[in-house]
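Repro case for the chain-ordering regression, as requested:
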Amino acid sequence: MKHFQLKSMASITHLLIYILAFLLIWEWLRPVPAVTNTGQIEIFVWFTLASAALIYLRFPFYITMPALFAGSLYGLHLIFMEGPFFSGEGAGTLLRTFAAEFTVNTGMIFDGNFAALTDFFRTFLLFTLLALVCYLLYYWVLYTRRVFFFLICTVAYITILDTFTVVDASQAVIRIVIIGFFILALLHMLNVQDEERAIGRRPGSFISPAWMYTLVTMAGAAVVAGILLPKPEPQWEDPVPFMREFAGIEGSGGARASRIGYGVNDERLGGGFEKEEGTAFLAAADGEKYWRGESKDIYTGHGWTSDPTYVESEQIFGSGIDYRMFEEGAELEEGETSIEMDEAADFELIFYPGQPVNVQNTAADSGGNTISENEIQYYTDAQGGRIQAESGNAQSVRLDSYDLTYEEPVFPMEELRNSSEEDPEDIQEYYLQLPEELPERVTLLAEEIAEDHESRYETAAAVENYFSENDFEYETENVAVPDDGEDYVDQFLFETQEGYCDNFSTSMVVMLRALDIPARWVKGFTAGEEIEELEDGRNLYEIANANAHSWVEVYFPEVGWVPFEPTRGFTNYADFEEPESSDPGIDLGEDTSGEDPNIPEPEGGVDDLLEEGGEQGGTDEDGDEGSAVFTLKNLLISIPLVIGVMILYQKQNRLQNKFFFYRYRLSGKSASFSAAYQRLLWMLANEGIPRAEGETLREYSRRVDLALSSQAMTKLTSSYEKVYYGGRTPADEWEKRKKDWEEIVRLLQA
Amino acid sequence: MRGKKEQPAVKQPLIYELIENVEKVVVGKRREIELSLIAILSGGHVLLEDVPGVGKTMMVRAIARSLGADFKRIQFTPDLLPSDVTGVSVFNQKTMEFHFRPGPVMANIVLADEINRTSPKTQAALLEALEEGSVTTDGETRQLQKPFFVMATQNPIEYGGTYPLPEAQLDRFLFKFRIGYPTKTEEMEVLNRAEKEPPIDSLQPVLALEKLLKMQTDVKNVFAGRQVKEYIISIVNATRQHHAVYLGASPRASIALMKAGQAYAFMQERDYVIPDDIKYLAPFVLQHRLMLNSDAKLSDLTTERIIRDILEQVHVPAGNEQAQ
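-- result from build under test --
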């Protein structure tokens, strides 16, 4: 019976399936710009859409082929040519170019010289490939009705990209799952419909509503459950670094891990971290603060140094310290903190919040005697702010515990925004330095970011936010190390886009300097973990080695050095004060990272490191926000929900039957007899007694009565025949046959 | 066709009585009797294809007697002339005039035995009678009697010296069916009855011809709704589109199917046709109207098989097409 079974490919279902298949192709194209140097991906997407449409509409090949060819030519024009396409000149040039390219490249193909193929020709080949894929999909999906393999390939492709490249596929996977659900289910529906047609039941293919509702509900439930359910950490070690190492993917000089902690030498930054255990020091303070160690101001292209000549010329203030960081514009509050260094820690410098005023040694020496105040001299690097203690005989002393008086600034936003840009000469001299080899594109990027921002503060904030807005990843393992010829910042900004605090802070400083904004790179610790509330109202913080951090200070002539926090997932501890009538349009540096929803969750072996960011910092807030979805409450809600959906699905026929039972019982008009009978046919079909295609109602009713051991269907049917075939108006048919109708529905329920 | 299948009982009392009467003579052939009566009621004719001796003549004679109708039998032979069928004008020497002697076709019920044994010319003479209800001799058209019913038979075994009826002529028969051998118990009954005097001679008419003519009019008033007509069209169309069919059923077949359906509905005392009527009658109406192509003939496909397939596939309108 081939002849009246000709498959129609033009049904809504087929169109829907093909559109979904197109969305799958799109998922293939989406990450392409991120992993290759292909630009203008939208042209390829449009082209794919056009080919898909042409192929679906089944134009004869002598229309399709030239149209696709013209389409790819137009695409080539958009990508490689300038000027209008539809002028004789534009098209002519393009055609000549195409002919020339085609000849040259075909020659190269025959010579096996594939590497030399030009971009133009490669693009043309890509267009051809896309058209072919569209055709293949048409064939796979609509003729052979198989898509599972393609789906698996898509998932594998996305997963691999997500694992090994910068592509973030967390959204894509959800999309693919939804698309996949629908395609598979619709294809299955078509197959079922075909089988039904083979036994002669259905006239055509269409989306049955029951199927559709179920599908949407199930797909929705699965996706929601998938998103809501808690996702435990991997139970085995991340194999990716090993695989990358094994495959030699780490192009830039191999993975190099360095210690977490406060290092001394910053001349060569980059490389992964190894977790360093242990506490650095305990500090009693009245809030969370940056623990500043020192700043460095010479960027070498690979890392930071201070001017060695300058270290020699330390200024000595005796027990008093005078290292000015802030100008009159900042409101200073004096505070005190007590610090106790961990025994294992080995720092020759003092860590301080804000700007230090005075240090009081409270520790005993190794012999148990308190070193007298007079024996200790403090040396301050007036430029970097490094404070060291030395004993009288010029030996550097490690202070085990000390009290520190400091001034903590509050930065008035108004001052910052209105700050002038007249930097003193010495500031300009030291803090605008950049290596000559700095790649041009870093400067260009900085200018691009700064484009629409007038004031220094807005520019700095824009650069600070650039990283989170552009999906830079916080990553501590396998962070690339630049090769000799490469620039550390350039590599991070344009190639890897993943790294830790050093990458972010260095990049920000370099970009600001490229914009002639004085900035410096600061090392120290984040606020650490609050472990205890002290009686004097202060809190005791434990600062671990893993809390070592680096950030940025930007110079504002009226205010001084203002900290900025470009690293994703970290919070700026500095106080910024909005004027009373604050303008909410402007971002506070403080808030930016805290509000960023994309901050990575602390994971596995690196969470300690991430806790650099501090307990109440952005990381944790976001952690809470993230885990808020996985709470017990949500779990408890979602499980019954899923079970409820399952039960509904199982009982749907029963419920429908109940509904119609009461509906027709209550409506009870004769006019509804036909409708009621037709509804009964529908219900019977749902309950697994469908009428075959060539089966007459009489044959069918006999079969139904046999199955239900009743007489009612035959009686009902002869009444219906009289109405439907006999052209009678149903007078009191419904009254007479209501009992029979209800009997069948009741039998169905049983 | 589809083996013994449950059929709706005949409810029309007069027809029922008629069938009972015929069955006094013919054993176990109720379906064939019914089909013959349907043909009579709807003004059609029947082609029987069967071996000799299964009771074709007996059945048609019994029907004729039960109706009190004029019955004639023509045995077709290769040398039979058209005038032997239609009648001939003979010269009466007494009156010195030509006098028309009606042929055997001038009767209510005619049995045309082994119709494929005679020449096409003679066949054509009979078929004109079938179609027009009149015959033309010596330039004069004569109306046949009413009702007029022909039951033609063909022997499917012997083909030597036969002139198979062309398709165009087969189309004029409403039904084609077989009678078939009786079952063992039926055959025992046949023997029992044949032991004594043949019962046919004692058969009394039960239905007057006038009443039969009235019934023929009533049959035309049986309602065939749009859905039923659509169903007929779908079936007929399916035969035209079937890959194994070289020539499908004609619109005449559609009309025949509908008329037969009306008669069948009438016999069940229903004043409207339902798809069951059509589905039941379709094989008898259609099977002699299809020509298979050579592929089908080679692959053992038969018209019966094809029609059965089509009936299983063609959607029966039931009013819930939108609801699904």
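Ordering looks correct now. DSSP finds 13 helices and eleven strands in chain B.
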